[in-house]
Amino acid sequence: LYLRDGRWADRQVVPADWVAASRRIHIDVPYEPVAGYGLSWWIPSGPLQAYETYLAAGAGSQSIMILPALDIVFVLRASAVLERGVNGLEVRDILMRLLDARTEPGRKAPALVPWTE
Predict the structure, then answer these.
(1) 45, 55 in Cβ contact below 8 A?
(2) Concatenated DSSP letters for 24-68?
(3) Can you name the residues that pair with 81 across neighbouring β-strands?
(4) Fewer CB within 10 A of the end CB, N or C, for the chain?
(5) What CA–CA distance (Å, rounded) separates 72 from 54?
(6) CA atoms of 2 and 38, how far apart (whole Å)
(7) How much of the chain is in helix, strand and coil states, percent to nearest 5?
């Protein structure tokens, strides 16, 4: 929904100007790796800024990261609580590997492999 500026299929569900405003920094945050906070979204600093990234973070490192410049929504539901998931640094490593795979020069788009029984 937010990757598509508030649209779901052919219907505008959330006003596009609200989505745009929510992705802008409204509160500066004085520590890395966050540049600030929008309206319900964290805005990261560093290399993720190049992809217009914004994210929601929950308990146990669960997160939603939206990277509009790459047309990616990255959702992590594994929880680091009680050692049943991944911690924040591991999440960042997973994301950076995904970005490397998506942005590597000369990489071709993956081919669809049909599933058969």
Answers:
(1) no
(2) S-SEE--STTEEEE-SS-EEE-GGGGGGT-EEEE-GGG-EEEEEG
(3) none
(4) C
(5) 11
(6) 13
(7) 30, 25, 45
> What's this model's pTM, rounded to 2 decimal places?
0.75
Q: Which of 74, 111, 106, 107 is nearest to 93 (CA)?
A: 74
pLDDT digits (tens, 9 = 90+) for 37-55: 999 899 988 888 889 999 9
What are residue 54's DSSP bridge partners?
Answer: 66
What are the Cα distances from residue 111, in Å, to 42, 77, 99, 114?
33, 27, 18, 9
Q: What is the pLDDT of residues 81-109, one digit of tens each?
A: 656 666 666 777 888 888 888 887 776 66
**Beta pairing, strands 72-76 & 27-28:** unpaired
Query: Tokens representing 53?
Result: 């990234």
- Bridge-partner residues for 74, per DSSP? 65
Identify the burial level of 14 via C-beta atoms within 10 angstroms of its C-beta, where 0-12 means exposed, 13-18 middle and 19 or more buried.
middle
d(CA 50, CA 99): 11
